[in-house]
Known about the structure:
84% of the residues lie in helices and 0% in strands. It contains four helices and no strands. Helix 2 packs antiparallel against helix 3 (142-165).
Amino acid sequence: MASWAVSPGREKTLQDNCLSSLKQARDLERERAAANEQLTRAILRERISSEEERSKAKHLARQLEEKDRLIRKQDAFYKEQLARLEERSSEFYKVTTEEYQKAAEEVEAKFKRYEYHPVCADLQTKILQCYRQNTQQTLSCSALASQYMHCVNHAKQVSLRRDIYHPQIQVETVRENENSNSKMNIDRLLKRTRRT
């Protein structure tokens, strides 16, 4: 029979090798456990971080949806307000236009338009011609000037009578202004002709 007897030196070496292998195995097991623990912690941190990010993303998405809803609500409100303002503006324009038209018609009905007819225009033309022809002897046109003044005064009287029978027509002041303008025109012409 073969014996497996091992020498004591060899046995010691084998024991040392076994102890060393066991020690290495324990060290490896510890390192593996530490690495697994670190990996587990990293995975947990990553999960927590990704959960927080998902939670933040959901929260931000809700906030965006809320803001979008508020913006749509405000947009609808402002569109409604704008439509109301346009409607009111249109109504105001219509009423204002109608009132203006009505007032214009009332004014036209109340006051007849004044028609301008020059008073004694033919005599005025003759006087002007006379003054031009007789620049040095303006007194030779005095007979025409007298006739013109008589014509103007007669037109005033006729106008006054017409105003008495038709008081709604206010033309007296206009005719007086015409007559004074005519007198002023004659005076200006006289001054011009005397200068030349």
